[in-house]
Structure formats: C-alpha cells, structure tokens
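Issue 218. Parser rejects a valid record. Input:
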Amino acid sequence: MFTIIGADGKEYGPVSADQVKGWITAGRANGQTKVKREGSSDWKSLADIAEFAGLFGGTPPPPVPFAAPAGPVDPKAYAADLIARAPKLLIGDTIGRSWELLKANFWPLVGVTLVIFLIQAVLGAIPIVGAIAGMLLGGVFGGGLYYYYLRSLRGQPAEFGDAFAGFSLAFVPLMLGGLVSGLLTGVGLLCLIIPGIYLAIAWCFTIPLIIDQKLEFWTAMEVSRQLVTTQWWRVFGLAILAGLLGALGALACGIGIIATLPIAVGSFVVAYETLCNPRSRAGAQTVTVNPMAPAATTTVPSAKAGQLQAIIGQLFSNPSVALMDRVTESVMDSSDPAVTDLLLNLLGHSNPGFRGLAIQSLGLVCDPRALPAVFHAYETTGGVYDHQQRAALSISNLVVNGRDRNPAAIAYLMKIFENHGMPVGVRAQAVMALCQFRQSDPKVAEFLLKMKEHPDPSIRMAAF
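Output the parser choked on:
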C-alpha cells in the first residue's frame, strides 16, 4: 500500500499499487510524483520505486479488463495467445499480492468468503440433496466468489450481491463447468490418481474464465488446461501452499482461517489475473481475438494508409498482440483520412476482437470523424462490456490529448462518469477529460468543483 502526493499538494491513500499504476496511466502522476510505502516515512519519486519504474517509458492508456468476443472461440488459438503473453507465475509474489489485497479489503473479503463457504457447508450437510446441490452449484458459487475478488483486485466497486453474480451472469455455463470438470477429475482420481491431480490443477481457471471472459464451459476448460499445463508445477506449488495456509488457519483453533482462507482464495485470483489477463508490455492494453475470415479491404493511395492496410492484412491471416500493437502505433496522431477510413471499415468487421481494436485505435487519430464513431460505439455496445469501456476511453483520450474537443463530448463524458458499472479508472479518465471544458462551460466547472470532494481519491485527483 502507498500514499501519494497529488498535483494539489494533498496526500491520497493508502492505496494499492494497482491504483497508483492506474493514476500513472491516466496521466495523474508521473515519475517525479512523491510517494511513500506504508510503514515507511521516506518519500520517494515514483520512478525510483521498483514496482512503477518500468511505466515511465511513455504513458499508455489504462488497461481494460477483457470481455470475450461473442460467437465461436477456438480454444487452441485463444490459449496460444495467452501462453505467448503470460509471464512466469511467481508463487511468493502471488501470495504477497493476495495478502495486500486482503489488507486493503479485510472485512469485506473475510465476510463474503465466509458466507459463501458457510452456505456451501450447510447445503452439503443435507443428506443426498446436499451432495447433488454441491455438484450442481459449486461452480456457480465459485464463479460469484471469483467475480467479487476480481472486482476488488481491479479496484472496481464490489458489493455483497456480486458474490452471487454467478446465478445471474452465467448460471448454466458455471454449473456445467463445475459439474463436468469435477466429474472428470473424480474419474481421473479413481483410475490412477495422478491423472486426477493433473486435471484438478489444469482446470483451476475454468470457473473464472467463464464468469470473467464469458467463455462457454468446455472452451474455458480447454483454455485453462492448455494454459496451466505450460506452468503446471508452479500452479501446483501455489495450490499446495494455499492449502497449507488454509490448514494452518484451521489448526489455530479455527480462528486463523478467517484470514488464511481469503489469502488462499485470493492467491488463485491473482494467479488467474497474471496468466489469463496478461499484458504484452508494461501497461499496454491487450485483447484476445477469435480468428475469423478477413474482411474486404480497399486499396488506398497514401503511404501511411498503405502501411496500415498491410499490417491489417497480416492481422487477418495471423492474429497476434504484436500486430495489434503495430496497428495502434501506426495510427497515433494520424490526420490522414485514408487511415480513418481503414479503421472505420475495421469497425464493421464480423470479428468482435477486431472491432474492439478499431474502437481503441480511433481514440488515437486526429480526424473529426473519429469522435462521432466512438460516440456511436459507446451507445451501441452496451452488451459488450469490453467494447463499451474501450469506446469510453477513446472518447476521453480524444479530448484529453487535444485531438478533438468538440463540446458534444461533454454529454458522453457525463454518461461515462455516471455509469457505475464502469471501473473507477475509466470514470476518472472521463472526469479528467471534462477538465478540458472547465473554462468554456460553467456547468462543467461547477461539476468539477463538486468532484474535488468525491469520496474516491482517483476521482478527486482527476478533477484538479
């Protein structure tokens, strides 16, 4: 946990390292911003802190939690993309991050975890019915618990009801994921034991992949198995250590489990976030795509547009994060209308992953057609959470970076701020964009004055 001195000279915190990174990527803090670690009295520059030093080679936009594309997903391609980007899982760091998460949200995490486990224990105590309920609902309860922990880890608002989100967001896939993986693991244990142990570890991310990335149950099982297999011993070691923590808590008169159980659960949530939501480079946005047939492209005369068209052609035939990064890099600050034409064509592609890339890239160009396009994307992608977040960030980016300060953006920025389903970092970015209209619009100035008293520190910082 850290305390940071904002641009207004006030102290904010303690906040998590992830929150500080969000402020850095939102442009609210830089390498010279002063920060001190919890328990220390020494103020240092952010650039001198190991956790943040790598973020100052340029400030990319804040990462967006991934929402899986609709339609068929190729598990092999999906897993291969994650494997290529995932870092090595460090068991000690994973447990440490889980502990930091618990310290920052102690009673909410303890309360939610105990409630979910107690409900399952009570159900399990009912003869016959309990066993059936446990098999059918175990994945659903687990999905809700993962959902709550992930929102807490990502700095998003987490309410008690979120712990039961599995019943409303993905009931059938979670039920099938828990049931099928459990039955097949049981068969493996009965046969030769070792296959069952392998499958239990390999399928450990099935439930979060369903609730977080909206995958179908069998796809989630396959993606989890292929991904975890590449680091199976590390995940197995984490499972052993998490199990030992839980056992030690139970031995301490049962009281210690209040803390050790959330740490054990949190360690797998952190591991999931590390391996299943990786970044291609520090702070860069990532997206996993479902390879589909390429959309038709049109030859354009300018050299810059021709280069972009070639990159997009490669992307269609061989989707990769590296090529997506090349797309965003090649359109940065472009005022070439032919480049915008290509992005608008990509926005109509049948592949949701490519559409998301187009929404993100339109936030980087200097073309008056870009802002109306992302306005439309924000309004029409409400059911595709990742796309709506990208549209929200693109609107804010176009305004903040001076690419387009059309007053029409004010209404959309207000909508984004008022959308409490958005991560607080995205809402804070909208507030920061509204600052560009402080002098020209009295209502915006009045709104920003109120935001300086907002209970969330990132919102307060954005309003200055």
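Fixed in the parser; the record now loads. Strands lie at 2-5, 11-15, 34-37, 44-45.
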